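User: Just a sanity check before I run the rest of the batch. Below are the structure tokens for the first item. I only need the designed sequence back.
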């Protein structure tokens, strides 16, 4: 990427960095080259761009949401699926964005004297402190800077970099105690106590990627008549609202445009003509995530029995955050679950798939998208640590799947995809149990071998599952397609089991007596562990040639012949 020039001098010598015309958004072009573009250029060239490229995946997610807020507001829509279809067919669909950006140019000036982009002019602490840029640059972990190329501090940022991190800090800033700002009524003893992370930080972020950035933006451009999502005529993005003061505006979100640009922090950059050298950062507008599923479409949702009991209301939905230890394919149920699949009667669904995927499902059902085409679902999120005061891990994953999985009137494809992932999960658990039994047979520590075997199992099945899932787009019979998957899992996990057994050594073959959790003693060696393993795997995956399981059920209770007589 080329380094953007320093700020230009505006009226009366004031510094200016116009984000509508100055390059600041990293992009990957369709030819594989990288570049930095202005807001105007991103929309003008969207069909020639592959994707946004951020310093972190979370920055990319935050920037995509900002672009969607611009598009929704500039197009004032789409109103319905037919309106969306016209945009999809129009190669120049984002032409109105140029006039829109020109109209609101002042609010996109990063260094504006009274309304700087996503900042609060004059923001200050009682002691007029200016803090290190580490506070907004998320790839410099607080207290643990040695895994960053910027170690140990960020002394200076270009205006382009600073603009990206300003967008990111509103979305993903950590919680914790923050320095209080002058005129913020929440200040106690010079501090504001924890009010939670940035809005996107509490989400298990999900969006759909197309072949180009134009397709990506359109696929995530939800129509105003979408069932299950609430739209308001008063919905506005941050730059069309009155500039924020130091405290909280104490208001609720009005819709997509508001949420995509939610001002969860108060920020003020300190700079000179060559770049940004410091920042003032405090809390902005807090926003509770409870039951926001009718406004926030870019996350899955889960029912919370604990919150329902606490609040005395039902249902209560909370965002389903991503588990860094669990790949996207293993969590496919949360992506394809239909809100109508409630488990019977009028009971509310235990989880809701992202509104973005509900929208794509509608496009498939209404035949705006081909039934057997593939879409790539992108998952982005953050795992926080120590009371959400630090970022522990960033989640970034993709899952390519046929859009038929989202079809609202034909659920059998989605059901088979979920069942296949669950079968893989159970088969890997059986492999972990084999590793546990082999460790018991020699009297060694059990948890380490079990965890290593499960990791190996999931790694071995991940690519085959992703390939099998993509091929489902061409499958005429999803049930037969799942049977092919079962054969794949049986073969893969059996081979992994062979390796564990071969590596167990002579001591495991000789075996030993061990005492289970019920204080019953048993004899266990490799031969018996192998028999249990094959039987359980064959039973779990419905192998018509399943061998005798050796009598071992799914608990610690052993085969009868293995019990040691007192």
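Assistant: Here's the designed sequence for the first item:
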């Amino acid at each position: 990427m080329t380094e953007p020039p320093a700020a230009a001098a505006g009226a009366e010598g004031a510094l200016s960095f116009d984000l509508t015309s100055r390059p600041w958004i990293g992009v990957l072009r369709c030819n594989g080259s990288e570049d930095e573009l202005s807001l105007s250029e991103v929309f003008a060239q969207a069909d020639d761009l592959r994707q946004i490229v951020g310093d972190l995946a979370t920055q990319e997610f935050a920037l995509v949401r900002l672009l969607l807020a611009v598009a929704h507001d500039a197009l004032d829509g789409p109103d319905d699926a037919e309106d969306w279809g016209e945009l999809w067919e129009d190669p120049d669909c984002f032409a109105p964005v140029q006039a829109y950006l020109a109209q609101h140019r002042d609010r996109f000036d990063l260094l504006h004297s009274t309304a700087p982009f996503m900042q609060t002019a004059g923001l200050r602490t009682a002691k007029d402190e200016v803090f290190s840029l580490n506070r907004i640059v998320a790839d410099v972990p607080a207290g643990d800077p040695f895994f960053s190329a910027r170690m140990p501090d960020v002394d200076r940022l270009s205006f382009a970099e600073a603009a990206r991190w300003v967008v990111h800090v509103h979305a993903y800033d950590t919680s914790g105690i923050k320095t209080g700002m002058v005129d913020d009524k929440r200040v106690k003893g010079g501090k504001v106590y924890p009010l939670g992370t940035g809005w996107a930080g509490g989400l298990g972020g999900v969006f759909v990627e197309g072949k180009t950035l134009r397709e990506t933006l359109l696929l995530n451009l939800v129509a105003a008549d979408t069932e299950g999502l609430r739209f308001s005529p008063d919905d506005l993005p941050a730059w069309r609202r009155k500039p924020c003061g130091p405290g909280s505006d104490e208001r609720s979100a009005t819709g997509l445009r508001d949420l995509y640009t939610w001002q969860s922090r108060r920020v003020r950059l300190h700079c000179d003509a060559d770049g940004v050298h410091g920042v003032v950062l405090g809390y902005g507008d807090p926003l509770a995530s409870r039951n926001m599923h009718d406004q926030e479409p870019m996350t899955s949702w889960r029912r919370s029995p604990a919150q329902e009991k606490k609040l005395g209301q039902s249902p209560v939905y909370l965002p389903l955050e991503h588990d860094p230890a669990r790949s996207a394919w293993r969590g496919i149920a949360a992506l394809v679950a239909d809100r109508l699949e409630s488990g019977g009667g009028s009971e509310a669904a235990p989880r809701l798939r992202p509104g973005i995927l509900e929208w794509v499902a509608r496009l498939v059902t209404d035949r705006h998208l081909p039934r057997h085409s593939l879409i790539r679902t992108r998952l982005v999120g953050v795992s926080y640590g120590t009371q959400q005061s630090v970022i522990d891990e960033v989640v970034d994953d993709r899952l390519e799947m046929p859009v038929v999985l989202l079809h609202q009137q034909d659920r059998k494809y989605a059901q088979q995809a979920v069942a296949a992932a669950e079968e893989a999960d159970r088969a890997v658990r059986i492999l972990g149990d084999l590793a546990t039994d082999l460790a018991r047979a020699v009297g060694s520590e059990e948890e380490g071998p079990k965890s290593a075997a499960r990791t190996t199992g999931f790694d071995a099945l991940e690519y085959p599952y992703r390939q099998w899932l993509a091929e489902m787009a061409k499958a005429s019979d999803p049930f037969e397609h799942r049977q092919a998957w079962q054969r794949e899992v049986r073969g893969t996990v059996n081979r992994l089991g062979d390796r564990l057994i071969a590596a167990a050594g002579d001591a495991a073959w000789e075996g030993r007596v061990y005492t289970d959790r019920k204080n019953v003693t048993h004899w266990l060696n490799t031969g018996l562990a192998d028999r249990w393993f094959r039987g359980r795997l064959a039973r779990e995956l419905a192998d018509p040639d399943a061998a005798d399981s050796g009598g071992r059920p799914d608990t610690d209770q052993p085969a009868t012949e293995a019990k040691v007589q007192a």
